[in-house]
UniProtKB/TrEMBL annotation:
The keyword Signal applies. The keyword Glycoprotein applies. Pathway: Alkaloid biosynthesis; nicotine biosynthesis. Residues 1-145 form the FAD-binding PCMH-type domain. Its cofactor is FAD. Keywords: Alkaloid metabolism, FAD, Flavoprotein, Glycoprotein, Signal. This is FAD-binding PCMH-type domain-containing protein. GO terms for molecular function: FAD binding; oxidoreductase activity. Involved in the biosynthesis of pyridine alkaloid natural products, leading mainly to the production of anabasine, anatabine, nicotine and nornicotine, effective deterrents against herbivores with antiparasitic and pesticide properties (neurotoxins); nornicotine serves as the precursor in the synthesis of the carcinogen compound N'-nitrosonornicotine (NNN). Catalyzes a late oxidation step subsequent to the pyridine ring condensation reaction in the biosynthesis of alkaloids. Signal peptide: none annotated. It holds the Pfam family BBE.
Length: 433
């Protein structure tokens, strides 16, 4: 059985299998009940993030929710896997702002937080829901946002000091004011005006929970090398910033968030890493060079940590990646050519770049993010060896202590491993508790 809410699982585990299967599609379970009075909302798992944001904004321009920026992503997988957005330095993850849930367990019972117990509630707020049951809905805590926020996207090329800016960003981005989220994206672009024709571009994509004057004051003091100017910045409402971050044209009406059709459909591969020590200039230069040599369409997106993320215990939720991380890295490769040959080509390019990054990222284990699902780091066949197979990827996603707790809960609530997929939480081997 496959359980699907939005269908955005990067490896397709909610709708693809090598064996006969059926889908429990939650797509039409998408009601959203917002209560500004107690600053909460009940959200069914088939709702999209865009629908959630629209329904909140419909009732208040000073409330939001710290989830992702892709509006067609379904709530079910995003929330249960510890989804994040560009307010995580201020408010943490989705799962840090969930008060309740409703779930159908393996016995067909509908449980809420009280009746499922604290362990199962803990597991489905960051450990992935599909290993434990069919989640119906979540109760979320709304967060406060200012009436106006500020956004900007500043790009610098290699011959415009991009190397120095990337070097400095690593040392500062996790230490800035919690109202500031500045994402750094490194990619290779074709240039008609530069030599060589392929060059590195470093982009700084930013949401600031405040006005432009405070932002300029903050960055002119702590990141003057960027050379940010007032003309680079745009003030808008928080819900409009979601459209901006998703690259909708300026002036797009917020009703666009209600569309359940993705803006583009491409073949893709995603991988993840955690940056725990700043890369040297030599290290960055090495990666820049390799990206150009590979002529890969892969971009590296560095999402800054610090702030609230460093204050929450790594055991508070199954998601363990808290203090000690400078940034989460996403490897994103998209292509349009159909067929196995093209897929293998682009998959290989992504894996080679991932290998080049090995010296610069977390080690023993090399950590990964569950919602950037990646079958390269291990799979289970859900047989007698499932615990040992699951441990390979499970410790990378959750670290040892959290993984063991997830397995213990799984063994208790679903001992026959009914809810399973290629990267689900396994049960303990027979005889072990």
């Amino acid at each position: 059985m496959k359980i699907r809410s939005g269908g955005h699982d990067y490896e397709g585990l909610s709708y693809v299998s090598d064996v006969p299967f059926f889908i429990v599609d939650m797509f039409n379970f998408h009601s959203i009940n917002v209560s500004i009075e107690d600053e909460s909302a009940w959200v069914e798992v088939g709702a999209t993030l865009g629908e959630v944001y629209y329904r909140i904004a419909e009732k208040s321009n000073v409330h939001g929710f710290p989830a992702g920026v892709c509006p067609t992503v379904g709530v079910g997988g995003h929330f249960s896997g510890g989804g994040y957005g560009n307010m995580m330095r201020k408010y943490g993850l989705t799962v840090d702002n969930i008060d309740d849930a409703k779930l159908i367990d393996v016995h067909g019972r509908i449980l809420d937080r009280k009746s499922m117990g604290k362990d199962l509630f803990w597991a489905i707020t960051g450990g992935g829901g599909v290993s434990y049951g069919v989640i119906l809905s979540y109760k979320i805590k709304l967060v406060r946002v200012p009436p106006k926020v500020t956004v900007f996207r500043v790009q610098r090329f290699y011959d415009q000091n991009a190397l120095d800016l990337a070097y400095l960003w690593q040392r500062r981005a996790d230490k800035w004011d919690n109202d500031l989220f500045m994402r750094m994206i490194i990619d290779v672009v074709n240039s008609t005006t530069r030599t060589p024709k392929k060059t590195i571009r470093v982009s700084f994509f930013t949401l600031f929970l405040g006005d432009v004057n405070r932002l300029l004051s903050l960055l002119n003091g702590s990141f003057p090398e960027l050379g940010l100017e007032r003309k680079d910045c745009i003030e808008m409402t928080w819900v409009e910033s979601v459209l901006y971050y998703t690259s909708f044209p300026n002036g797009t009406r917020v009703e666009a968030l209600l569309s359940r059709v993705p803006q583009s459909l491409t073949y893709l591969k995603r991988k993840s890493d955690y940056l725990q020590k700043p890369m040297s200039k030599e290290g960055l230069e090495f990666i820049f060079k390799k990206m150009i040599e590979l002529q890969t369409p892969t971009s590296l997106t560095f999402n800054p940590y610090g702030g609230r993320m460093s204050e929450i215990s790594p055991s508070a939720k199954p998601f363990p990646h808290r203090a000690g991380n400078i940034a989460k890295i996403q490897y994103a490769t998209n292509w349009n050519e159909a067929g196995v040959e093209a897929a293998n080509h682009y998959l290989n390019l992504t894996r080679v770049l991932y290998d080049y990054m090995t010296p610069f990222v977390s080690k023993s284990p090399r950590l990964a993010f569950l919602n950037y699902r990646d079958l390269d780091i291990g799979i289970t066949h859900n047989g007698k060896l499932s615990y040992f197979e699951g441990k390979v990827y499970g410790i990378k996603y959750f670290k040892k202590e959290n993984f063991n707790r997830l397995v213990k809960i799984k063994t208790k609530v679903d001992p026959e491993n009914f809810f399973r997929n290629e990267q689900s939480i396994p049960v303990y081997p027979a005889g072990r508790k």
